[in-house]
Amino acid sequence: MNIRQDRRSYYIFLLLTLSSSVLTLLIGISMAWLNLQNTIESRTRDFDKLLVMLDSLYLTPLGHSNQTALQLIEEQMDKPAIAGGAPALNAVWKAAYRLRAEPAYLFFFNLASQRLDTYPSWVPAAGYDPRQRPWYRALEMAGPNNQLIGPYREYNSGEWMLSYTRKVQDDSGKLLGLLMADIPVQRLHERLLQGMLPIPVALQVLHHDTGAVITQFHPELVPEAGMTPATEPSWHTLWHGLSRQHLNADSKLDLHVYLPPAIFREAARNTLRLVILPMVLLFALSLLSLSVLILIFRSEQRLVARLLSGEQPESLHQWLSTWFSRDVLARAHLLRHEQQANRKALLTDPLTGIQNRRAFDLDMANSQQQATPLTLMLIDVDHFKQVNDALGHQQGDKVLIAVARQLRQAMQPALSYRIGGDEFAVLTAERRASVLLEGVQRLQHALARLQPQAVSVSVGIACVDDSREPGLFELADASLYRSKQHGRNGWTLRSAHGAWYDSWQSEPFTAASETDSTPAAGPAADKSTPPGD
User: Fold this and answer.
1) CATH T-level topology, domain 1-296
2) pTM of the predicted model, to two decimals?
């Protein structure tokens, strides 16, 4: 049979074969997916019910009973007497103590007398200062009188504790003190453990307002990214697991559960049996289609192989004249272009537009394979945290963008990188100190004129004659540390000969020395070993 002459008939046969294969595949996948989705949703509902059960049995009664006990005590307080320094204890305390779901200590801290009344009696160890305890800040908190404080260490025993607090005020609104009901975290953990099913899931109890972890079960099952996978069932559940949560503003305690992928993979294995027969049929049809493809397009496959092996694109117009491989070749070029674009994106810092830590590590590794001179600068923005705290993170980002722009302009043609939050680096083959420090001074002068927030930087520089020498990064880091130790807003240079120079000892550099990394002017270099070296 002449394949080329009968191409049309083969195309029709191929189309019918592939259509039937795809139809069979879609039907099988649809049946399997519907079954698997129902199974996953059923498992998810079961765990939602578990969270509701744990909340209704333990957390909600815990919050209600403690808040009710504190309210009962406050209602029976003789507030005028307490304002005069009298003790707050009365017969109601015992009844309120028995109302609680988890009986533990009840406290009242008298703000005027600085006395702590307790039931049952509790004697603090020596050195106890109420103003230093975590619950003391509840007196200064705005918002509702009822707060949950913790977890924190109990002063005498060091046991982890939670405290429900209630601010007490007189009729005029004057703050008299703070009522507290303690709850040992270990006791809460044991109660919740009783309600947990013997299944491999991770459970966390979180503070509703602060997000702090109160207690947790099976933390080893939680992924490194935390309990942040998908919260709704989907096919991602088979790889990343599923997170569910139950929020309870009344008790101030929230439940988060993470279901690992293993729970759903077993269901997936059972579901896949539904598509075995359609897949076998599809495989048989695919073999038949493949035999036709091999006969018809054998020559065109060679063209694809030539492209994938690196054929230059000048002959592409010749390849595109073939009907079958036209789309394949165009896609190959598109994929190559996308690969290059993705590589550039992977090596670029999205905030500043300069290269990132991944690009820095690659360039360092490539440079250290060659026996050539190499200089590394490490630049750290001074007191950057204060910029974020004073102006906000959005303005802090603008400062980082401006620093990156000025760094790239000042250090051209050297390569600039952002390797951390406010940390930057420069790689260059330049070893002349005058050239290097002229760039540093340009950078410092430009940053000093930034608006609306001028910043300064600390710079550490290290030079080596042979880039294969180990420890270049450590030398530059030691130089940076030395600059910070001197008070920041300066530079320290470690020459290829092992000498140290810094902006607090040397005069401005001149271009007198063009072949060495030794400064051309200034006092004698400090050749002592830098801190940490």
Assistant:
1) Beta-Lactamase (3.30.450)
2) 0.46
